[in-house]
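Supplementary material to the annual report.
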Amino acid sequence: MTARRTGVFVCHCGTNIAATVDVKRVAVEMGQEEGVVFSKDYVYMCSDPGQSSVIKAIQDNQLDGVVISCCTPTLHEKTFRDVSTEAGLNPFRCEIANIREQCAWVHSNRDEATEKALKITTSAIRRVQNNEALTPIGVPVTRRAMVIGGGIAGIQASLDLANAGLDVVLVEKQPTLGGHMLQLSETFPTLDCSQCILSPKMVEVSKNKKIKLLTDAEVTEVSGFVGNFKVKVKQKAQYVDPELCKLCDDCTHVCPVVVPNEYDQGLTGRRAIFIPYAQAIPASFNLDEKSCLGLNPVVCGKCADVCEAQAINYDVKPKTYEEDVGAIVVATGFDLYGLENMGEYGMGKYEDVLDGLAFERLCSASGATGGHVLRPSDHKEPKEVVFIQCAGSRDPENHCAYCSKICCMYTAKHAMLYKHHVPDGQAYIFYIDIRSGGKGYEEFVQRGMEKDGTVYLRGRVSKVFEKDGKIKVMGVDTLAGRTIEIDADMVVLALAMQPSKGTADVAKTLKIGRDKDGFLAEAHPKLRPVESVTAGIFLAGAAQGPKDIPETVCQASAAAAKVIQLLSKEQLEHSPAVANVRLSHCTGCEMCVDACPYEAISLTGGGKAYVNEVLCEGCGTCQATCLRAAIDVKNITQLQIFDMINASIGG
Amino acid sequence: MASTPTQTPKDPSVFEPRIVAFLCKWCSSAGSDLAGVSRMQYPSNAVPITVMCSGSVSPVYILSAFNKGADGVLVSGCHPGDCHYLKGNYFARRKIFLVQKLLSFIGIEKDRFRMSWVSAAEGAKFAQVVEEFVRDIRTLGPQRKLKAKR
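Predicted assembly:
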């Protein structure tokens, strides 16, 4: 059916559009287009008077289709489709012509921009005149959620979801919950012990019947769509049964293998059978299959021999779980910028040049040295320590262009903690700027300078090298205008934060985007900060961008709230702009069946293609594949596209 | 505002190509929105048609555009592997070679058709793709071979 009473509404957007596009001319010329019976321009179409004028025009002129020429449809398509509904017009008879982002804002020549705006608007008119009136399709919802990542973000999101009565599957790659926060000694600006504030939440997760915890596990496959995802999770072989393990520690005493302990940033060693932290959840020893000899019982097998609980079984195989969930929260966290990248600061070359997390482990009571700050090389107390901020951050030429946001604060904390451990020691901090925005943050930095005598040196470090058992740090103090040489006992680098190593794979599996730095991309930087572009997938924590613990917790709770909102509905609305088969043209060649990414098309008994409308996402791949033009996506049919091409060329 | 609108009349000696740009909704159209929000400037010759997926762009659309008088056709989608619809852009990618071969066969320079991958975060890349494409089509001059006589 062709609509022939079309209305066109051209927005000035203040001067945003009107400064470059002659909107009055657009409105006048569009009024002369075939089938257009009403056309006007208005300063702010999205304002209440603007919306009312659309409603009035639809009703007064019995419009059967409207085009709003304004900003991108991602902003106001919903507004104007709701307005259409209010006026009694089917919302799918409303189309947006984007003359702001794709026209006014990217061109400066008024004539050229106006010409282009005319083409874009005509194209939308041609489309809307052949749009069908559609009704959204109702789809049932799986009232269950998955959280990927068991750091503080994942823990908080899981608890919020479970406490709202939803079943949660929490998937963590490591053998324990806790993420990087569990490695920290104290947290700024209150100096709370990190483990003391985190472990109650971890225990809560383990006790909560609504949460199914899968550690040592990774998501391998995701299919389905918002409200109904099917997720495959692969869990590594659990050689130690967490139900049976009594945490007696007998196994580690007999294990002959020693490897660097990654939970202590390699400052200590661990056995092939080990527990990452005393507070680990699940509370169980783990067998690291990469370093264990006992998987070949002829070679070893000592731990199984001494295990009285008989919790160890070398024959266990990896498991694959298939979970049905309605929504997914991605909280895969961060990693530090690789040591290998920071050769200029002697990282990886000198034992006493450490990263921030290693320094946390030195300060931590549960850490490598039992809470004493000692040099890794000779176990002596360091008397002068140099902290270098922005190691890898804010350096677009060589490293990461962005600010890692938390380093100013944690370096201030490190210097303070160091002074508390070594009262006669001296801490120096090389910095570019001190960024201490946040409640109590600036006061914290000041406290470090005033009470603990931290010396701040504004400038970059040029060279770090070892000389006579000391680490010589050469830099410049740009405020005093002099060069600085410090014979330090230890150097701590505030390395940049990066998305955790598996982030790219997770993003690929879930089909969500990443930004230029590799962090997960939010749907809108300001207004939809916890949603990914894919409906039903939400983001939390440092995987989305560098952030500290309070912000991470905020975002995790926000993501959980979004999931609760989504899953509180009985039914979800599925877009009715789905593929439609013209049976008279279909020959049953099955090319569309093969092309469909969602397996939504099948062949009926009569040898014709049939579209399952609930599964169809309306991508149109079938449309481009069909040789006989027998399949079309509603409201963007081939005939509509031909009309739009015509309009775009100005023909 | 990044720039002040100008009223300079067009230089008639400069060939202004007519270009149709098929942009997928999720990546390239979003990327072009970002170019807009960031006020990046590029030539106005390419008129966008937002489609759901680059995989939905049939070779027939491309030929139809040339037939209607387009001097160039751009199709832009999500990066391979990042398709919002899982694998639509792989179908699009397979068609590039076919379309270019077909264009050469019927006597149209194959460079009049271009495919690019622009993600939602790549506003600058979108502006650059359009700028380069317009420049290249300007060099090629008007497309007369397939344009229907009216």
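The longest strand of chain A covers residues 217-225.
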